Amino acid sequence: MNKKSISPIKVLILDDEIDFTNEISDYLQNSGFVPFSANTTQEGYAILSKNEIDLLILDVRLPGANGLDILKNVKSLYPGIEIIMVSAHGDMDTVIQSVRLGAFDYLRKPLRYIDIQIAIERTQKYLHMQRKLEQIEEKYSLITNEMESRIGRHCIGKSAKIIEIYELAKKAAQYSDTNVLITGESGTGKEVFAKLIHYMSKKKNNFFGAINCSAICDSLMESEFFGHKKGAFTGAFSDKKGLFEICDEGTLFLDEIAEMPFNLQAKLLRAIEEKEITRVGDTKPIHPKFRLISATNCDLQKMVDEKKFRLDLLHRLNTLHIHIPPLRERPEDIAPLLLDFTEEFSEKINKPIEYIADEVFEVLEKYSFPGNIRELRNLTERAIILSEGKSLEVSDFPLPAIYSSTRKKDYTEINLKNNEVELIRKALEDCDFNQTIASEVLGISRYSLIRKMQKYNIDIVKKDVSKLA
Ligand SMILES: Nc1ncnc2c1ncn2[C@@H]1O[C@H](COP(=O)(O)OP(=O)(O)OP(=O)(O)O)[C@@H](O)[C@H]1O
Ligand SMILES: [Mg+2]
Asked: CA nearest 364: which of 342, 391, 332, 411?
């Protein structure tokens, strides 16, 4: 807990009248404050330098000094101190000036205790609020620090490919207005990198809003993005900010961008190009500043060719393109990921693992991981749950048989398609390209031979021409 939140308020009274400072001191002491009194400016500064004063009650007129100058000076030396000015009757100009210079309140002489009490209580409330705010900010920065470290810790990998991507992500973070498109198979870490870019950028203290474009229905999508005005449609009971507005000065992460309906793509494009949006049912344009990071496991260029995705939008989204290769193309990352996930889950389920058999690494490095890192993570969690002792054995990782350790063997020799093509070619050549005899030799119908020749693109004429050449 913050020490300041429980300590009583320290008040310094700076006035040349000794009777006055004594009287106020006694009153403050009895009211539960910690009073200090000073009758000269020097004395006042000495107390300020040695004690963490919260509130200064300052006379506007002090011999040889101007209260307003002291006010300015104290505010610049100790910006956290609040000041109540005490003025003589008819000194209104000075009062106005002192408030302009940052005084919290003012009191008029002769003082009434009730006025002092009200002024101090008001200051006290304000100081409490400030302290609460400091605590919240402190807590918030702890949360973000923790999040950042978690994210940093959870971007694991030592392959040249992942290091290259990490460097690219760092670049993207540096240019915090640049739109980034992240592509890669499912489970490769697209969201991990999107967050990494955000939390490494100067926008890190602002909002990171993520939306999965496949998860919201078409009719609500516009309101989700652009917000709406109360009454814009049935169910719009109040004004609502859209994602663009919420992510003002932050990052908007559009996950599964390929799922965005075609008609909304045009609106999104306009919002990105003009940096201007209008809430549904409103006419007033708003200008939020956001960075877009989009992600997909689809081939957007192919979708453009198929007229399912707008080319102009693609160009806007991929100012910087980061492609994360599948895990099977970077097997060097498997070991560090396995170690990290083991540490994470053994801690989480309180089951210490002290040893991982070499065979586990060998088997996993040969596995194809169709579900990429997500699959490795799940496999590790399951293995820890299944394991009997303090070690992980290969039997704790039940992989689908087809992908097991023999996956890297060369199967071309027994590949059905390759052999079929070769046999058909050979039969045709041996039978002088007579399809009826060749089909009999192959033991299939003539019709079936023709279908296979079409399927495998076996062209007799071409073959003859090439033979002649
Ligand atoms: N480099 C990495 N280091 C550690 N963990 C990672 C890494 N990349 C991904 N992961 C973990 O793998 C899982 C999948 O990652 P993420 O959700 O980012 O993948 P994705 O590419 O967005 O998948 P999808 O296309 O299915 O949405 C998460 O649990 C994530 O924490
Ligand atoms: Mg994802």
From this structure: 332
